[in-house]
Amino acid sequence: MKRYSALLLFLVFLASCAEDDDFGLESTQFVFSDQKWELVQMSGSFQNSETSGEEMDWQEYYIFSPEGTFIKSRTVDEEVTEATGTFEVVEYDNDLNHYLELTYQTGNELVGNCTGDDKELLIYRNSTMISSLWVACDGPGLDYSLSKN
User: Fold this and answer.
1) What burial class does residue 139 get, using C-beta atoms within 10 Å of its C-beta: 0-12 exposed, 13-18 middle, 19+ buried?
2) The model's pTM
3) Do 36 and 147 meet the contact criterion of CB atoms below 8 Å apart?
4) How far apart are CA 126 and CA 23, in angstroms?
């Protein structure tokens, strides 16, 4: 009987470990390393309005730390503005997507959102791409790529 119990327990453990990480959350390893995500593309509300690289209106990046804090840096015409705050990975009922919810403590002028408060939401596209949800209310579409893990 012990043999069957041990086998059943092993199979349950194995099945729980075999779950696919479709969104790459495990591979991002927020708890193990700092991550730098750089703005790689901007888009407007008009078709074919995408820009990338030096063509973008500004350069920007996030650095997420294993402690749940972030730094956001934006450079416009050689002027650098920074913001800091905390973040967490969140999920919503009936939504298969994963999000990063940022709460700003400083630099609120860099918050890109539809609500006007100190929170910003980024959608997690895959293990190397996140996007701002500011585009939902006529803000620019902002796509970030993982540049340092």
Assistant:
1) middle
2) 0.78
3) yes
4) 5
